[in-house]
UniProtKB/TrEMBL annotation:
GO molecular function: 3-oxoacyl-[acyl-carrier-protein] synthase activity; fatty acid synthase activity
Keyword Phosphoprotein carried by entry: yes
Keyword Electron transport attached: no
One protein family per Pfam: Ketoacyl-synt_C
GO process terms (BP): fatty acid biosynthetic process
Domain called Ketosynthase family 3 (KS3): residue spans: 18-440
Record key words, sorted: Phosphopantetheine, Phosphoprotein, Transferase
Organism of provenance: Moniliophthora roreri
Protein known as: Putative polyketide synthase
Gene3D superfamilies: 3.40.47.10
Length: 502
């Protein structure tokens, strides 16, 4: 069954919409932390403070100084949005032997960890269910210096791009479609689009959508350096006069989406709703494979809003691709300005780019933007750009009334009845364009018999993938949840534990 937008009415616990997707669980590791990256709560505080995750290339990646330079084989910058001291998770918790893990791409390990987090946080039933897995990724970063005599039985599954998605399906017993998606820097948005279409069409009931970009080799960075898209100082200065190229960045993230009416039926906690998606391609309009097309970008925006039953002039915030390249930002911001200002009656357009904080996560870039926008919608705050000092003279800020926030602001809808509306763009350097539209969601209502239930007694279920992990969790929960409402905690832990083996 193919669903269509029922109306532009805001999805809520009182008004369900089978065309909309409820975002019910998120997990992320973003640059900016000391070890293993920033998860959602840390990421939120980091963005509020205009934090920067730009650091010198970690020594366990490559020798930044040895590769520094402008000539072929060198890299114009020693910096980027790297996650330092990343361990990517314990594979034995997922039933993976050390021998197999030794020949697994770190992307597979990281994706397992964050898919598990997102599923657990969502509280949805997932084992043995028709759940899809869609992963924005490129070839697995398996160990590069493997001698042919050491390429054992696990090397192919450990390095195959398909296994980035398939291993998630296997470990968590998810029986829906399972596939990787590579459209370069729009990969994760494309993965989301495909997941949304699959849920709407009945191919799966819910989906894990993920993206990963972990920079382990200098090869690709050196190639991008020669292409001329990297900034020498390693900062993505999106929309700024001093923009001079982008910073490459790490990211791994996963979210769980579920048809809105089913999420309401199951009393899931809904963080935000995704109501429209669209994909386009630049074709040969610009005469260059890597030059963005304003027409294709405009079409993606308008089609996504049409899919949502809305128009672009209703947007309260737009998270642009905004990498910090001179040509890319100029094309994108002016195109978006023209599109979103049409019929807006002079209202300003607030735009942002998380890449100014953490660099460009490429294959996983959309996921960083998505987690940011979901948190903005949930907490009713506009998060500022990490770097923005002087508006670019190449972007028509005044004509289109564009504005980049530089401090935390209250996020207030123009139309209170419609609620907050925000959208996100992603573009691949081969011409693949995409846009998604999101809306705020109301807070889950309190159960009618809450007072009776809250009188106790309470059952606190703790589950893990191994007996060892259960004992570890019990100790951590004692500290983490000491001040949490006991009824809420009982429900929260119960929804997690029922999916686990121990």
């Amino acid at each position: 069954m193919v669903s269509t937008p029922s109306s532009a009415i805001r999805p809520s616990y009182a008004t369900t919409d089978s065309h909309a997707m409820a975002i019910v669980g998120t997990s992320i590791a973003a640059p900016g932390g000391v070890d293993d990256g920033l998860d959602t709560e840390e990421f939120y505080e980091f963005l509020k403070s205009r934090g920067s995750g730009i650091i010198t290339v970690p020594k366990d990646r490559w020798n930044a100084e040895a590769y520094h330079g402008a000539q072929p084989g060198k890299i114009v910058t020693t910096k980027g949005g790297y996650i330092p001291n990343a361990t990517y998770g314990d594979t034995q918790e997922f039933g993976i032997t050390p021998a197999e893990a030794a020949q697994m791409a770190v992307s597979q390990i990281a994706l397992l960890h964050h898919a598990f987090n997102a599923l657990q946080r969502s509280g949805v039933d997932y084992r043995g269910t028709n759940t899809g897995v869609y992963v924005g990724c490129t070839t697995g970063a398996a160990p590069h210096n493997v001698d042919i005599t050491e390429a054992g039985a696990y090397y192919m599954t450990g390095s195959s791009i398909s296994i980035n998605a398939n291993r998630i399906s296997y470990v968590f017993d998810l029986t829906g479609p399972s596939l990787p998606v590579d459209t370069a820097c729009s990969s994760s948005l494309t993965a989301m689009h495909l997941a949304v279409q699959a849920v709407r069409n009945g191919e799966c009931d819910q989906a894990v959508v993920a993206g990963v970009n972990i920079l382990l080799s200098p090869l690709e960075t050196a190639s991008f350096s020669q292409l001329g898209v990297l900034g020498p100082d390693g900062i993505s200065k999106a929309f700024d006069e001093d923009a001079n190229g982008y910073a490459r960045g790490d990211v791994v993230s996963a979210v769980v989406i579920k048809r809105h009416d089913l999420a309401v039926r199951d009393y899931d906690r809904i963080l935000a709703t995704l109501v429209g998606t669209a994909l386009t391609s630049c074709g040969s309009l610009m005469g260059s494979l890597t030059t963005p097309s304003p027409d294709a970008q405009t079409k993606a925006i308008r089609n996504a809003y049409a899919d949502a039953g809305l128009t672009p002039n209703q947007a309260d915030f737009v998270e642009l691709h905004g990498t910090g390249t001179i040509v890319g930002d100029q094309y994108e911001a002016n195109t978006a300005g023209a599109c979103f200002s049409d019929g807006r009656d002079g209202r300003e357009i607030v735009i942002g780019s998380v890449k100014s904080n953490v660099g460009h996560g490429e294959m996983g870039a959309y996921m960083s933007s998505l987690v940011k926008v979901v948190m903005m919608l949930e907490r009713k705050q506009i998060l500022p750009n990490g770097y923005f000092k002087k508006p670019s003279s190449r972007i028509q800020f005044d004509e289109y009334k564009l504005r980049v926030p530089i401090e935390v602001e209250d996020f207030v809808p123009y139309d209170v009845e419609q609620g907050l509306i925000a959208s996100i763009s992603s573009f691949g350097f081969g011409g693949s364009c995409g846009h998604t539209v999101l809306r705020e969601h109301d807070v889950r209502p309190v159960l009618p018999d809450y007072e009776t239930l809250n009188s106790g007694p309470y059952l606190f279920a703790v589950g893990g993938l191994t007996p060892r992990s259960v004992n570890t969790l019990i100790e951590s929960y004692k500290a983490e949840y000491a001040d949490v409402d006991p009824l809420s905690l009982s429900e929260h832990l119960g929804s997690r534990a029922r999916q686990l083996s121990w």
